[in-house]
Structures are given as C-alpha cells and as structure tokens.
Amino acid sequence: MTTTAEIIQPLDQMFLSHLHDMELSPEQNVALLHRMLWREGYNDRIAGHISARTPSGSLLCTPYGLGWDEVRASDVLTVDRGGRLLKGHRDVPIAITLHLAAHEMRPDIHVVVHHHPRWATAWAAAHRVPPIYDQLGSFGGAGLMLYTEFLGGVDDWDVARRNIAALEGAPVALLANHGVLVLAEDVVRAHLRSVVVEHRCALAADVEQIGGGQPVQDDVARAMGSKTSDGWPLLFEAMARREIDRDPSVLE
Ligand SMILES: [Zn+2]
After folding, report:
1. Distance 120 CA to ligand 1 centre (A)
2. For residue 38, which of 28, 29, 57, 241 sits 20 to 30 Å off, Cα-Cα?
C-alpha cells in the first residue's frame, strides 16, 4: 500500500481556477462537477458521491441527501482524512470510507467519483466490459476494468482498502452489480473519464441493440486514449458555463 506522502499540486492543477472573468473556488468546482455529471447520466436520485482532495489534505465531498442536480458550492462538505465533518451543514455520506481509502492509498489521485449511471450500471450487472466503438470511448493506459469482487460494506475501512487495492491502478472500474468508480488527478480528468465511461457503455448497448458492430482497433483505441488521458479542459469549461447559465446559484 502506498503511504500518504502527499503529492502537493498547485490549486489550479486540481481545480479550474478561472472561468473567463470569474474566479472559482474548489467548492464551486466540486458543485459544478456534480451538476455536469448529473446531466451526463449520473442521476440516480440521491445516490453517489464525489470527493476531492485539497492542497491542505482535507477532502471536499458530496453532502448526503441532495440530488447531484441541486448541489451548490455552500452545500459541499469539508471532511478530514478520517471522514469527520470539518465544515458544512449536512451529513457526511456513510460510504465516504471508500473515498477515504482511495485518497489514502493513491496519493496521485485527487478526485474520486462514484455513482450508478444507467448504462455503466447495466454493463456492470452483465459483468461485461463494453467494446470501444468510437473516438470518445477510450481511456488508454490501464483503461476500464470490471471489478467482479466488489465488496459491499463501504463504511468498513478494511473492505474499502481491499476494494481500492484490487483496482490495481485502473482509472475507471465497473463495479459488478453496482455502478462505476472513477479516479482522477483533477476535476477536469474526473469529468472526462466519467463522461467517457457512460458514453462508451451507452453506445455499446445501442450497437448491440441493432445487431452488433465493429469495435475500434486496439492500436487506434490506445492512440485515442492517449489524447484523453490529460482530460479535456475546453469541454469542462463549456459544460461548466452551461451549468452556470442555467442556474447561477450553483456557485453560491
Ligand atoms: Zn453506490
């Protein structure tokens, strides 16, 4: 297990610091990420959680009891590395232990997303990794894994650590009969990887529905994945702008 020798990155490498003439706080980044992903299919009622490690070592996380489409910056909780509430007016999700273990064991990771988007959850239930059928379907590198031994009891430290260790460095995992787990260095990569996995799963389901198709060749998929490995800041900014236009209170 990797110990928590902190990898301190400048704030603007983990979070979007500016959006045109606006300065964005880490809490505003996290609130926007919730809303942006809700629109991408991360919309299983009040389920799921996001956590983001700050340069001080504390974690920002989803407040329990809100849908991701209603989270505002002031709703985002701050917890310590043991999951104890430091700041915020809502409850800490019980399953935050899975996130705490991820941040403890993966100092290269700053943002963790867990949810049950429709199509990723369907492939996770089928215990199958969907083929890549288009340009937005690849992560490259360690890629997408199916984790069939995902252990419940996500408020248990030992179980949470075993779950994270089993991912073996994969940035995105389908958790069998459960949902998806995304690990990323920053909010931009967390957004793109979350978008990619649900897009890939939805497209592959469509392709199967019409009788099957031809997956992208491995070398092409790897090349595509290398382009998305750094995230897609312009996509993040464009989607963030839309959320702010729709409901500026996301930043409050
Ligand atoms: Zn879950």
Report:
1. 12
2. 57
pLDDT of 68-105, one tens digit each?
A: 999 999 999 999 999 999 999 999 998 899 999 999 99
C-alpha span between 157 and 26 (Å, rounded): 26
Q: How far is the CA of 116 from the centre of ligand 1 (A)?
A: 6
CA 243 to the chain's CA centroid: 18
For residues 195 and 98, give the distance between their C-alpha atoms in angstroms, rounded to a whole number: 21
Kind plus residue range of the DSSP H or E element containing 25: none
At 61 the three-state DSSP class reads strand
pTM exceeding 0.70: yes
Question: Residue 230 C-alpha to ligand 1 middle, in angstroms?
Answer: 26
What's the DSSP call for residue 128? Answer: -
Cα-to-centroid distance, 49 and ligand 1 (Å): 8
